[in-house]
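Page 37, top half.
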Amino acid sequence: MALNYSVALRPNPQDKEAAPKAYATAQINGELSLKQLSRRVASQTTVSRADVVAVLTATVENLLEALQEGKQVDFGELGKFRLQIVSEGTNTLAEFTSTNIKKVNIQYIPGEDLKSIFAGLEFQPVASRKAQSAALRAEKEGKTVPDLLGTPATEENPNA
């Protein structure tokens, strides 16, 4: 299975004067809802869908509660979750107060099994959503549709 990605030019946030560089962005091709996930789990086990939803909901509530208590939550093969603080620095320890804390993020550290899955992942280039939208507009207007992936034109593919 391949992970779809598109490429876009982005500026360097640390160096506003630097020329933009091309970076890959994973292209999401859907979502697995709680309802769909619970149906899948229920079909693979002897647990009802309602029970799966109840367990997943309680799991999330306990995860959030444990994080607020300052605990790291270990989900085994899935990975670990913990809080990460983003703050402004001060010149001395005495100057630092909680007002220097700007936000808190949830940090996720994948488990070993997930790391090995990512190591063998293949990648498939696709057009960005913006490029797909532009191509649809051009097609509706009867204009020539540009090659969305930048493939050079050939005799076999003159529209590229």
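Page 37, bottom half:
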Amino acid sequence: MSGLATATDNGAFNSRPVENAAVSEALPSDFFALLKPRVMRLVVFTALVGMLLAPGALDPVLATIAIAAIAVGAGASGALNMWYDADIDAVMSRTQKRPIPAGRVLPSEALNFGMVLSIFSVLTLGLLVNWVAGGLLAFTIAFYAVIYTMWLKRSTPQNIVIGGAAGAFPPMIGWAVVTGSATLEGIALFAIIFIWTPPHFWALALWKMRDYDDAHVPMMPNAKGEASTRLQMLAYAAVLAPVGMLPWMMGFAGHFFGLIAAVLGGIFAWLTFAVWRDAGRDEKLRAERRLFGFSIFYLFALFAVLLVDAIAMRGFGSYLLGGL
């Protein structure tokens, strides 16, 4: 079993877990859990949409390799995050059963696992596809593991605002896989996820404030208060509504996507307004849970409709005959 760092006299948590064992009890499922598979699914899906939207063609074999490399890179980020955050994961109810705080995986194993996967994924994407995509993947891993996990998360309530960029890069990487460049269209896809992240995550942070208090993590509700957080969420939702329509505004998605994006953005804004409204605590908790659940649906639905719309505009046969 592995021991974890505990709170110091001043209430802060040590940033590194401490190993008390030399023998691993890990199963393959534990290493798979280190990859944060639920997050990985979103990364893979948005990267795939970026690839399919991008102009040009890519050999199906290379496309498969690219998606696999992006998935492995996302998993590597998750493993490094769990290695570094094992001390705070141990005191938060929603993360206590993760492999390291539960004692099933040694911290050194998680670190080595994450580093090997990081190097492998970047080299695979860079050498076999192109180095623009490989470089963006390397930057994404470093940004999430170092800038967000090791620095921003424990130092500023703006942690998820800035750190959310890491989760916004996958469709941009997917676009670069096909085009070999970072264009305005890829940046527009990045912007959607970047603006979506704060209200999505703060809905969870409001719901789990006690966890973040116990872990001494300065999430926005804990550091600036619930009222300020809800107002900021409403502002982000108001910006997200038009930003979600950028693919239609920029001409690389059709009217069907524009209509669905407007509807989804309107629902997102309304649910955020419900969170912002002054109401009893029980009602607020229900509103926060509804917004968090819908925010996940929003992003999947938006990118799914974007994909369907793009295939309809370009013709499904083009993908079959010319690769992706």
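Margin note: Confidence is low (pLDDT under 50) at residues 1-12, 316-324.
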